[in-house]
Structure prediction request, 353 residues.
Amino acid sequence: DDLMRIFASDRIAKLMDTFGVQENEPIEHPWLTKAIQGAQERVEGQNFDIRKNLLEYDDVMNQQRKTIYGMRKEVLASGAGVPLIWFTEDPKTKKKTRHEKMVTWKDQEEHLYDLIEDLIIEIVDEAVPRGKNDEFDTKALQTRVREQFNVDMSFEGAAPDKEKLQLDIFNVVEKKLKAKFEALGDDFRLYTQWLYLNTIDQLWKDHLLQMDHLRQGIHLRGYGQKDPKIEYKKEGFELFQIMKGRIAASTVSMVMRVEPVQPQAAVQPAQARASTALPPLPQRRAQPTIETHGEAPTAAGGQGGTVVQNQTAPIIRAGPRVGRNDPCPCGSGKKYKKCHLPQEEGGARPAES
Prediction:
């Protein structure tokens, strides 16, 4: 039995040898019952600890999953005309509370402005020097703003005032984004919604893969006298915050690069392609071929057919055909190929030796 072999192999084996118990004989004794009970408790306790650790690891992913699904539901509810419903649960009483709200296109725009504001605060905090002796790199700030928001701003001679810089950048970006909403209307709002959802889905899948890799090797932190569960929660939270920042940055960057296409601009590439197309290849003139049956071709290509050049007249033999190695019919005693065959084919007769 596996249970006896793992937990009580040596002691029970010696007792069975001492009392001469046969292999197929049933064992009944209080000591044995207690030993089996203790082994079962240890196995069940070990399995319970494994399930408990697994639940604690899964609880981290469950909280992140609820946050991401809440973001997706709110984006999907924008402009749908139906209320967004969700439930919250009291951890003590386990009582669930129902919540409901309408999400309009205006709410989506305000949410987009909030993402832009958070990104501007982060960019300015990185660019503005923290110490008095540090240098304010205006070129780096200009590059970051152009890459993130697709706007060109000059900060030459600007003071390293965080609040003023944040307000100036936000006003420029807000003005450009409002012009897009006014010019493109609901089409631009639908595209922004689809873009936001697609970014969430792609980065969430990448985050799940990263968390899976982290879960596989987190137990090695125990060798460094650290609790693997606490380290998993800490690093999982950091990765989740990085993912949320990437979602906001990617969405805003692509939305700010959307530009309307004029109808004329759409037709011009087609005309350019037509003008730059290669000319047709010249067609080779087909030569007419006329077959004649039994009639000799005429020189002028008349009724007898077309002019055929380099034609040889057929050889007409009066007698029977003579082989190349047969004796020549002239009676010289030589082979035909060395006597009269070259004369008949138009060649010179070989010199006689």
In short: Residues 294-310, 348-353 have pLDDT under 50 and may be disordered. The domain at 84-257 is CATH 1.10.3060.10 (Helical scaffold and wing domains of SecA). The CA atoms of residues 5 and 13 lie 9 Å apart. The longest strand covers residues 84-89.
